Amino acid sequence: MTPFAHCDISAVLAWITSIDFALWPQQHRIDDQLRPAMVNDIEWHGFGSHTDDLVKELLVEFSLQLVVEFPLRYVAFNRMLSVVMPGHSIPPHVDAQQPEWITRVHVPITTNERAFMTIDGVQHSLAIGSAYLIDTRCEHAIRNDGDTPRIHFMVDVRRS
Length: 160
Prior knowledge:
With about 160 residues, the protein is of the alpha+beta class.
């Protein structure tokens, strides 16, 4: 899988790694391990303000490189943070999307060489700071067999 852009994630990385995983919303624990839930509340620890510049950068790159419709009428919405702790996974699933939805952009903030995203049966390693377009209407799953957490920033893009 080839990224469509490379991003400066240094500010987001510094912010998100300063928040202890115990302070994240939690899924039910397995074997008493922390299991941070996906975050999509832009008020959570200043999530919205800490990711505004990254979202702007992604929309500019998306518009410059990939969009052929003019005038450009695309907006970012539905910001998310996803953590998959070492030894954990997200099972295969498909996301329903609205007709105006175009894509989900994934930007790995932290990862390791044994964290994988599988899309339509093909396993991918996604690089830190690279932006990938993911069609979540296709079956996808995540597995982290490494020793460190895998954190992705995600944002959806739709027609305005």
